[in-house]
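User: My collaborator sent over this chain with a note saying "see what the structure looks like." That's all I know about it. Can you take a look?
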Amino acid sequence: MSEVSVSFRVDFSPECAVGPGKIALLEHIDSSGSLSEAARKLRMSYRRAWLLLEDLNTSFQQPVAQMSVGGRGGGGASLTPFGAELVSAYRALETHIRKRAQTAFPASALPAPAGVPTRKPVGKRRLTKAKR
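Assistant: Without extra context I'll predict from the sequence alone. Here is the result:
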């Protein structure tokens, strides 16, 4: 069986969820020390990145990142200890799920070869009202 890809989101409540996009944002903030640089690396607008970070910071009982106001050296962003722990826990769960997914499905669960039709195309049928 080829490598299975797994993508998931953890819902802590209806208003609080963490998935691959928010985790990637936190990881890029951690590595760059900048929200704007993290947004550029992820090819998202600064506003979108700021809104995602604001959502994360207000969704939990403690913030995941701290922002510093620009000045002579410019502003910056850094993960809080809780933010770093959240990223670490998410990645550990992802590794566990990926390993489990490799053995969860039968070896015969293989994707169809590229370019080979797997089923007949569905034709368009006209739906008419039944006569009484």
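A starting point for your reply to your collaborator: The chain has four helices and four strands.
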